[in-house]
Amino acid sequence: MSIRTAVTITAVAVLGCGSAASALPRPPAPTVARQQVSPGENPAVQRWFKSREKLQIELNDALQAARSLTAPSSAVCARLTVATFRFGLGSTVPEVKLQPYVYAGLPEFMQAAQACTAGDLATMRQRMDEGAASRSTALDHIDEILDNEE
Fold first, then answer.
1. How far apart are the first and last CA of the chain?
2. Which residue of 1, 68, 101, 133 has the lowest C-beta tally within 10 Å?
3. Axis crossing angle, helix 53-67 with helix 43-51, rounded to the nearest 10
4. At what angle do helices 121-146 and 106-117 cross, to 10 degrees?
């Protein structure tokens, strides 16, 4: 067999294998890159909220204790001040869109704590109501952001 014949046979064999390989089913090409995880499914966001649960509970308990006051109480007012301050501290929110909403109502709660310390229970309750209304509205936005709807 000559070299020319061997090259021709090899070329035909290679081309034949290429045709057979192209006839095999191929895995589908990815049509769309994997969608981003919604903020509510983001592990960093979940960890951030989880790390703040105790602070949220303490703030809620302090607000409840202050709301039930019938006379000034330095212990209850101090608890509200500390709980509000601590809630405002901490790590940065891992989802930028959540930032304006997660601290909603906090300025009003701090004003309520100041009014409480001053013995002005009427102003304290008014600021607490304003803060609660602000947080209620913000929670709707937080839910929408976490569900990737906003």
1. 74
2. 1
3. 40
4. 160
Selection from 93, 97, 88 nearest residue 142 by Cα: 97
**How wide is the angle at C-alpha 16 spanned by C-alphas 10 and 19, nearest 5°?**
145
Q: Per-residue pLDDT tens for 30-58?
A: 554 445 778 889 999 999 999 999 999 99
Distance CA(101)–CA(99), nearest Å, equals 5
User: In this structure, are residues 54 and 112 in contact, taking their beta carbons and an 8 Å threshold?
Assistant: no
Residues 6 or more apart whose CB falls under 8 angstroms from that of 90 comprise 51, 52, 55
Alpha helices for the chain (secondary structure H): 3-23, 43-51, 53-67, 74-88, 99-102, 106-117, 121-146
Total-model pTM: 0.73
